[in-house]
Amino acid sequence: MYQPTWIDTKIIANHQPSTATNSSAINRPITDIPAIKQWSAIKLFYRQHMPYARLAQKESVAVIHHLSSSTIDGTDDIDEVDISQQKIIAAIRVKPIGQYQLINGLLVHPDYRGQQLSSQLLKFIAPQLTTKNCFLFAHPWLIGLYQQHHFIVIDQNVVIGQNGLSAIPAEITQLYRRYHSEQRPLVLMQLKNQD
User: Fold this and answer.
1) Number of CB atoms found within 10 A of residue 118's CB
2) Which helix (H) or strand (E) holds 39?
3) Each residue of 63-76: b (16+ CB within 10 Å) or e?
4) Domain housing 120
């Protein structure tokens, strides 16, 4: 079984490119380097398998790594393994949109599909999600997966709203309208109360 982990994007967001005039570049903590390598690896993973995705540093990113058998030395702590020996095989992003959250970019490497990695990632991020304020735009064939994780389909009439008014937050509705099209139909879903 693979273990999901969060990528620390806070270190990345504070990273400044080194320049000859930037004296702090000389004193930059060495701990930044693994985080920068992780960020580069996740961007490459998305570029290779979901080229239209654009990662933002304000997003939270959870990943699952595959560790080669030569990498594992009996430790269960993925953080102790050299980042260069880790291969990202699945990822998901949680993007803050004002006071709301948007789940996006759920991606599993083609060689690892069918192993329940999507469900594992959704379970892993669940404690970080805000009920009623968490949304996602699903491909129609993934509705069942998200329903298993307590997301409900939002009726298209609610998204459009009667008399131009919508029960869905304007920020989410605006993004949905930008990404949804006849060529690329998406279904708006919302995390429901589990009471």
Assistant:
1) 21
2) helix 32-49
3) bbbebeeeeeeeee
4) 4-9+32-68+83-191
Identify the burial level of 165 via C-beta atoms within 10 angstroms of its C-beta, where 0-12 means exposed, 13-18 middle and 19 or more buried: exposed
Classify residue 78: in a domain, yes or no. Answer: no
What mean pLDDT comes out for the span 112-134? 94
Write the single-letter amino acid at 13: A
Closest by alpha carbon to 62, among 143, 4, 147?
Answer: 4
Helix (H, G, I), strand (E, B) or coil at 121: helix
Q: Scanning the structure block, which residue is given the tokens 């961007």?
A: 43
Three-state SS for 24?
helix
Q: Which amino acid appears at position 161 of this protein?
A: G
Where residue 162 sits, what CATH number does that domain have? 3.40.630.30
Helix (H, G, I), strand (E, B) or coil at 171: helix
Strand ordering across the sheet containing 4-7: 4-7, 60-67, 86-97, 100-108, 134-138, 187-191, 151-153
22-73, pLDDT tens digit by residue? 444 444 444 567 888 888 999 999 999 999 898 888 999 999 999 765 544 5
Residue with tokens 């693979």: 2
